[in-house]
Write a structure and sequence with these properties.
alpha+beta; 13-stranded antiparallel β-sheet; single chain; Lipovitellin-phosvitin complex, beta-sheet shell regions; 20% helix; globular; 5 helices
Length: 306
């Protein structure tokens, strides 16, 4: 009888915990610095005139977020890149750029090094949405001032590549992919909610996500999500390196996220994306009939706070 009563008591405690309403949101402290370390591995497959081209790309970044002001609904933060790395496996060979590489002949790596520790400011809501990004352009302006010898066309090409990866729109989309996950109100374990996010990474896309409060662990809350992604405007041409292109892409994303019980900051996140569709090159002097290129992308990303 005593054992039965004990089991009933334990079951009651577990059930009470399961039904508890939790306000999942950011609860950051002014003056405190929060870290985010990102690792992304992408495999891109393109088919051009019957030839299949595979590209693998790795991006790594170490960032710090210093909370400079706390308001009722949001936070002001000072953001800095602590280190940056990108590598690509191309049909022509492998290349790597690293902010920690000390090689004056490697201009791209030197520019990444100059982008380190230059602050820019963001405003983030307590639900993880980025509502403002300021002074991110100073990253590029300060970096390129160190290299006046660069030919203008080469400078513009490098700047375009950096803006794609680290510019205002790209930053907002990449950070919200992992922070814009919190529900508008308190939820119980097992409950789900929907979040809409706009991504800007080469092309504009809309992401609709369904997240679920999956588990209440001793030191973290566990959230899982499934998202669908589609091109925002499949008829809109955008220019990249002087070439006009439009995208018609769709895909999905799965997320597993651990958040700290006290601060709400991301402890660890694993995100997997699969996107496919077509890229259309607008007709020009080199391509009088334009070109349609089938493309698929698979991205595996991890985020951590240490």
């Amino acid at each position: 009888m005593k054992n039965i009563l004990t089991l009933i008591a334990v079951s009651f405690i577990w059930t009470s915990n399961y039904g508890q309403q939790i306000d999942l949101k950011l609860n950051l402290e002014k003056g405190k610095e929060y870290k985010q370390i990102t690792n992304s591995k992408s495999k891109i497959t393109q088919e051009i005139e019957g030839q299949v081209i595979n590209i693998e790309m790795i991006l790594r970044g170490n960032m710090s977020y210093l909370v400079t002001a706390v308001h009722e609904d949001d936070y002001e933060m000072e953001v800095r890149y602590k280190s940056l790395m990108m590598s690509m496996q191309l049909p022509q060979g492998n290349i790597e750029f690293n902010s920690e590489k000390n090689d004056e002949q490697d201009v791209f790596s030197m520019i990444l090094a100059e982008m380190k520790n230059i602050p820019f400011q963001i405003t983030m809501t307590k639900r993880g949405k980025v509502t403002d990004v300021k002074n991110v352009d100073t990253l590029f302006e300060s970096a390129f001032k160190k290299f006046p010898q660069l030919p203008k066309d080469q400078m513009e090409q490098i700047k375009a590549q950096l803006m794609k990866a680290y510019g205002k729109k790209a930053f907002k989309g990449s950070i919200e992919m992992v922070t814009a996950i919190y529900p508008d109100s308190s939820v119980k374990q097992g409950e789900s909610w929907k979040i809409n996010t706009k991504l800007e990474a080469g092309f504009s896309s809309d992401m609709t996500s369904n997240y679920q409060f999956s588990a209440n662990k001793s030191d973290h809350y566990f959230i899982v999500g499934f998202s669908t992604i589609k091109t925002t405007d499949k008829d809109a041409y955008i220019k990249s390196n002087g070439i006009a292109m439009k995208y018609n892409m769709t895909g999905n994303m799965s997320s597993e996220i651990k958040i700290d019980k006290i601060s709400g900051w991301i402890i660890e996140a694993k995100i997997n994306q699969e996107i496919e569709g077509d890229v259309y090159f607008k007709e020009n002097s080199e391509m009088p009939n334009g070109m349609k290129v089938p493309m698929s992308m698979k991205n595996d990303m991890t985020f951590s706070n240490q």
